[in-house]
Amino acid sequence: MPRYAVRMKLRTVTWLLTSALGLGLPLVAAQAATPACTRLCAVAWQLDPSTSSDADEALEDALDEYKEEKIRIRSTRSGDYSSMANAEMDESLGPLRRRPPRDELREELKRRLAIPTSLHISQDGKELRVNEGRGSPRRFDLDESYSRVDSLGTAEVKAKLAGNTFTITEKYGKGRSNREDYVVEAKTDRLVVTRTLSRPALPELIVRSVYKPAP
Length: 215
Prior knowledge:
alpha+beta
Protein backbone atom coordinates (compact mmCIF):
# COMPACT_ATOMS: atom_id res chain seq x y z
CA MET A 1 0.00 0.00 0.00
CA PRO A 2 1.44 3.45 -0.90
CA ARG A 3 2.65 5.56 2.01
CA TYR A 4 0.24 8.40 1.28
CA ALA A 5 -2.68 5.91 1.61
CA VAL A 6 -1.44 4.76 5.05
CA ARG A 7 -1.20 8.39 6.18
CA MET A 8 -4.74 9.05 4.97
CA LYS A 9 -6.08 6.03 6.90
CA LEU A 10 -4.33 7.13 10.10
CA ARG A 11 -5.75 10.65 9.72
CA THR A 12 -9.25 9.21 9.19
CA VAL A 13 -9.03 7.01 12.30
CA THR A 14 -7.73 9.92 14.37
CA TRP A 15 -10.55 12.18 13.13
CA LEU A 16 -13.20 9.54 13.96
CA LEU A 17 -11.88 9.04 17.49
CA THR A 18 -11.68 12.78 18.14
CA SER A 19 -15.20 13.30 16.82
CA ALA A 20 -16.60 10.49 18.98
CA LEU A 21 -14.98 11.89 22.11
CA GLY A 22 -16.17 15.41 21.31
CA LEU A 23 -19.76 14.26 20.80
CA GLY A 24 -19.73 11.97 23.83
CA LEU A 25 -20.32 8.88 21.72
CA PRO A 26 -19.50 5.46 23.26
CA LEU A 27 -16.31 3.77 22.09
CA VAL A 28 -15.69 0.06 21.65
CA ALA A 29 -13.61 -0.05 24.86
CA ALA A 30 -16.40 1.41 27.00
CA GLN A 31 -17.24 -0.21 30.32
CA ALA A 32 -19.70 -3.09 30.37
CA ALA A 33 -23.30 -2.06 30.88
CA THR A 34 -24.89 -2.47 34.31
CA PRO A 35 -26.91 -5.74 34.41
CA ALA A 36 -30.65 -5.18 34.32
CA CYS A 37 -32.96 -6.55 36.99
CA THR A 38 -35.76 -8.30 35.07
CA ARG A 39 -38.39 -10.60 36.61
CA LEU A 40 -36.77 -10.28 40.03
CA CYS A 41 -37.75 -6.59 40.15
CA ALA A 42 -40.94 -6.79 38.10
CA VAL A 43 -43.32 -7.79 40.91
CA ALA A 44 -43.72 -7.70 44.67
CA TRP A 45 -43.21 -11.07 46.38
CA GLN A 46 -45.29 -12.72 49.10
CA LEU A 47 -43.97 -15.47 51.39
CA ASP A 48 -45.38 -18.99 50.98
CA PRO A 49 -44.87 -20.48 54.49
CA SER A 50 -45.98 -23.97 53.44
CA THR A 51 -42.93 -24.46 51.22
CA SER A 52 -40.42 -22.45 53.28
CA SER A 53 -38.01 -23.63 55.97
CA ASP A 54 -38.70 -23.23 59.66
CA ALA A 55 -35.82 -20.90 60.58
CA ASP A 56 -36.16 -21.42 64.36
CA GLU A 57 -36.10 -25.20 64.00
CA ALA A 58 -33.04 -25.10 61.72
CA LEU A 59 -31.25 -22.80 64.17
CA GLU A 60 -31.94 -24.99 67.22
CA ASP A 61 -30.81 -28.11 65.34
CA ALA A 62 -27.52 -26.41 64.54
CA LEU A 63 -27.04 -25.09 68.09
CA ASP A 64 -27.44 -28.61 69.46
CA GLU A 65 -24.02 -29.35 67.94
CA TYR A 66 -22.42 -26.09 69.09
CA LYS A 67 -19.73 -26.42 71.76
CA GLU A 68 -18.98 -23.41 73.91
CA GLU A 69 -15.40 -22.57 74.83
CA LYS A 70 -14.00 -23.57 78.18
CA ILE A 71 -12.64 -20.48 79.88
CA ARG A 72 -9.31 -21.23 81.52
CA ILE A 73 -8.28 -19.33 84.64
CA ARG A 74 -4.61 -18.57 84.94
CA SER A 75 -3.08 -20.12 88.01
CA THR A 76 -0.71 -18.02 90.12
CA ARG A 77 2.03 -19.01 92.50
CA SER A 78 2.24 -17.43 95.90
CA GLY A 79 4.81 -14.62 95.86
CA ASP A 80 4.91 -14.38 92.03
CA TYR A 81 3.80 -10.76 91.83
CA SER A 82 4.06 -10.54 88.04
CA SER A 83 1.70 -13.49 87.52
CA MET A 84 -0.67 -12.18 90.17
CA ALA A 85 -0.80 -8.77 88.49
CA ASN A 86 -1.51 -10.36 85.08
CA ALA A 87 -4.25 -12.53 86.58
CA GLU A 88 -5.89 -9.50 88.18
CA MET A 89 -5.76 -7.66 84.85
CA ASP A 90 -7.37 -10.62 83.06
CA GLU A 91 -10.09 -10.77 85.70
CA SER A 92 -10.85 -7.06 85.37
CA LEU A 93 -11.20 -7.38 81.56
CA GLY A 94 -13.38 -10.46 81.78
CA PRO A 95 -12.85 -13.72 79.83
CA LEU A 96 -11.49 -13.37 76.30
CA ARG A 97 -13.47 -15.56 73.90
CA ARG A 98 -12.90 -16.58 70.32
CA ARG A 99 -16.49 -17.78 70.06
CA PRO A 100 -19.63 -16.27 71.61
CA PRO A 101 -21.71 -18.04 74.28
CA ARG A 102 -24.62 -20.11 72.95
CA ASP A 103 -27.36 -17.64 73.97
CA GLU A 104 -25.51 -14.70 72.43
CA LEU A 105 -24.95 -16.63 69.21
CA ARG A 106 -28.64 -17.65 69.12
CA GLU A 107 -29.79 -14.02 69.29
CA GLU A 108 -27.38 -12.90 66.57
CA LEU A 109 -28.40 -15.69 64.20
CA LYS A 110 -32.12 -15.23 64.85
CA ARG A 111 -31.85 -11.61 63.71
CA ARG A 112 -30.08 -12.63 60.52
CA LEU A 113 -32.42 -15.53 59.76
CA ALA A 114 -35.68 -13.65 60.35
CA ILE A 115 -37.75 -14.34 57.21
CA PRO A 116 -39.67 -11.32 55.88
CA THR A 117 -43.27 -11.99 54.86
CA SER A 118 -42.93 -9.78 51.77
CA LEU A 119 -40.13 -8.65 49.48
CA HIS A 120 -39.79 -5.96 46.86
CA ILE A 121 -36.55 -5.59 44.92
CA SER A 122 -35.83 -2.52 42.82
CA GLN A 123 -32.92 -1.12 40.84
CA ASP A 124 -31.53 2.37 40.46
CA GLY A 125 -28.54 2.25 38.11
CA LYS A 126 -25.83 0.18 39.80
CA GLU A 127 -27.70 0.11 43.10
CA LEU A 128 -30.08 -2.71 44.00
CA ARG A 129 -32.54 -2.20 46.87
CA VAL A 130 -34.13 -5.00 48.88
CA ASN A 131 -37.23 -3.84 50.75
CA GLU A 132 -38.28 -6.36 53.40
CA GLY A 133 -41.15 -4.27 54.77
CA ARG A 134 -39.34 -3.55 58.04
CA GLY A 135 -37.46 -0.28 58.13
CA SER A 136 -35.37 1.21 55.35
CA PRO A 137 -34.50 -0.91 52.27
CA ARG A 138 -31.13 -2.61 52.19
CA ARG A 139 -28.93 -1.11 49.47
CA PHE A 140 -26.18 -2.86 47.51
CA ASP A 141 -23.74 -1.60 44.86
CA LEU A 142 -23.55 -4.16 42.09
CA ASP A 143 -20.18 -5.77 41.27
CA GLU A 144 -18.28 -3.55 43.73
CA SER A 145 -16.63 -4.81 46.90
CA TYR A 146 -16.86 -2.59 49.95
CA SER A 147 -16.45 -2.92 53.72
CA ARG A 148 -19.11 -2.71 56.42
CA VAL A 149 -18.63 -2.73 60.19
CA ASP A 150 -21.23 -4.38 62.44
CA SER A 151 -21.43 -6.45 65.61
CA LEU A 152 -19.37 -9.27 64.05
CA GLY A 153 -16.55 -7.01 62.94
CA THR A 154 -15.59 -5.85 59.45
CA ALA A 155 -17.21 -7.62 56.51
CA GLU A 156 -16.21 -7.55 52.86
CA VAL A 157 -19.52 -7.23 51.02
CA LYS A 158 -20.16 -7.98 47.36
CA ALA A 159 -23.44 -8.09 45.42
CA LYS A 160 -23.85 -9.63 41.97
CA LEU A 161 -26.82 -9.64 39.59
CA ALA A 162 -27.10 -12.02 36.63
CA GLY A 163 -30.51 -12.22 34.98
CA ASN A 164 -32.98 -13.51 37.55
CA THR A 165 -30.30 -14.39 40.12
CA PHE A 166 -29.05 -11.99 42.78
CA THR A 167 -26.29 -12.97 45.23
CA ILE A 168 -24.96 -11.17 48.32
CA THR A 169 -21.81 -12.37 50.09
CA GLU A 170 -20.44 -11.03 53.38
CA LYS A 171 -17.05 -12.37 54.50
CA TYR A 172 -15.63 -11.57 57.93
CA GLY A 173 -12.76 -14.07 57.96
CA LYS A 174 -11.99 -16.70 60.63
CA GLY A 175 -14.73 -19.01 59.38
CA ARG A 176 -17.52 -16.39 59.55
CA SER A 177 -19.58 -15.51 56.50
CA ASN A 178 -23.14 -14.84 55.29
CA ARG A 179 -24.55 -15.53 51.86
CA GLU A 180 -27.94 -14.79 50.32
CA ASP A 181 -29.11 -16.16 46.97
CA TYR A 182 -32.26 -14.79 45.32
CA VAL A 183 -33.36 -16.92 42.34
CA VAL A 184 -36.56 -16.71 40.29
CA GLU A 185 -37.37 -20.22 39.06
CA ALA A 186 -38.41 -20.20 35.41
CA LYS A 187 -40.77 -23.18 35.70
CA THR A 188 -42.68 -22.09 38.80
CA ASP A 189 -42.23 -18.29 38.59
CA ARG A 190 -41.43 -18.33 42.29
CA LEU A 191 -38.64 -16.54 44.11
CA VAL A 192 -36.43 -18.80 46.22
CA VAL A 193 -34.25 -17.08 48.81
CA THR A 194 -31.50 -19.21 50.37
CA ARG A 195 -29.58 -17.87 53.37
CA THR A 196 -26.33 -19.66 54.24
CA LEU A 197 -24.49 -18.75 57.45
CA SER A 198 -21.10 -20.08 58.55
CA ARG A 199 -19.74 -19.74 62.09
CA PRO A 200 -16.85 -21.46 63.92
CA ALA A 201 -17.84 -24.69 65.72
CA LEU A 202 -21.32 -24.57 64.17
CA PRO A 203 -22.63 -26.69 61.26
CA GLU A 204 -23.36 -24.66 58.13
CA LEU A 205 -26.80 -23.16 58.62
CA ILE A 206 -29.08 -23.05 55.55
CA VAL A 207 -32.58 -21.60 55.53
CA ARG A 208 -34.76 -21.53 52.40
CA SER A 209 -37.78 -19.27 51.94
CA VAL A 210 -40.12 -19.34 48.94
CA TYR A 211 -42.13 -16.40 47.60
CA LYS A 212 -44.87 -16.14 45.01
CA PRO A 213 -45.92 -13.00 43.10
CA ALA A 214 -48.19 -10.88 45.26
CA PRO A 215 -51.73 -10.42 43.86
